[in-house]
Design goal:
Length: about 250
């Protein structure tokens, strides 16, 4: 039987990765460093915290794309070279009530599920959930099988088809791997807000609230107690970390 060229090149990639180890270069000047834990000198990731995002649909308008633009800039997702289309880790979708005709605009991204199906189907362990609930992809071990893309009911993951340029050191990307929203983990680990949330309050309508779902005194917990929150496809029992109000 003749071996598929794609399979052969994939095997060569994996062999090279095993030799290079944790310092493998994803692109010139871009390396991965322990994305499963906080960097040295910072508090270790703990299950005592569960990061979550709350979106107030009543404040989110269709014409506002501050969160989408901020994400592209923060992670270097703008199209470069032959790739003219920007990658999207967060997208705006429109909901329409068939009865009343009322429409709503919502941002949708990786929902950072407590029971993530992407992690369940990943054959290499590249898709994983941190102790604090953030779901990530380890580019060292992702083989681009795309099982996670098929398993995700939110269509929140995408595949990198072309060589990427203009990469950010805190957000490495690589051809042949899968990617999705990281909750801007590099910001969270140093006590900052995700770029989309920051932009929503600075340039948008203030519809997003990010915080610790396990802390009853956090803003997100207080808002959920006062007004409630809906999980997209809550019937699946995945317990997403992203909640929506006013839907």
């Amino acid at each position: 039987m003749t071996e598929c060229p794609t399979s052969s090149s994939r095997r060569q990639f994996l062999n090279a990765a095993s030799v290079l180890g944790a310092g493998m270069v994803i692109a010139p000047g871009v390396t991965l460093h322990g994305i499963s834990e906080a960097k040295a000198g910072l508090p270790r990731v703990s299950s005592k915290v569960r990061w979550g995002l709350l979106v107030d649909a009543n404040k989110c308008t269709a014409e506002c794309t501050a969160c989408v633009s901020a994400c592209k800039i923060e992670h270097g997702l703008e199209g470069h070279g032959r790739v003219k289309t920007d990658a999207q880790w967060i997208r705006k979708v429109e909901l329409r009530d068939r009865g009343s005709g009322r429409t709503q605009s919502l941002p949708v991204m990786c929902q950072h599920c407590d029971e993530p199906p992407c992690v369940d189907v990943c054959p290499t362990g590249a898709s994983f959930k941190r102790a604090d609930g953030i779901v990530l992809v380890d580019k060292h071990t992702c083989i681009g099988c795309r099982y996670c893309m098929m398993a995700c009911p939110y269509k929140a993951r995408s595949f990198v088809h072309e060589v990427t340029t203009g990469q950010k050191s805190h957000s490495p990307r690589g051809k042949g791997t899968v990617e999705s929203c990281t909750f801007c983990v590099h910001r969270v680990d140093v006590g900052r807000q995700p770029a989309c949330v920051e932009a929503c309050h600075k340039d948008g309508k203030g519809a997003m609230t990010f915080g610790d779902l396990k802390d009853p005194n956090s803003d997100i917990s207080k808002k959920l107690v006062a007004h409630g929150g809906v999980r997209i496809r809550g019937d699946l029992g995945l317990d997403p970390g992203v909640r929506y109000q006013g839907v």
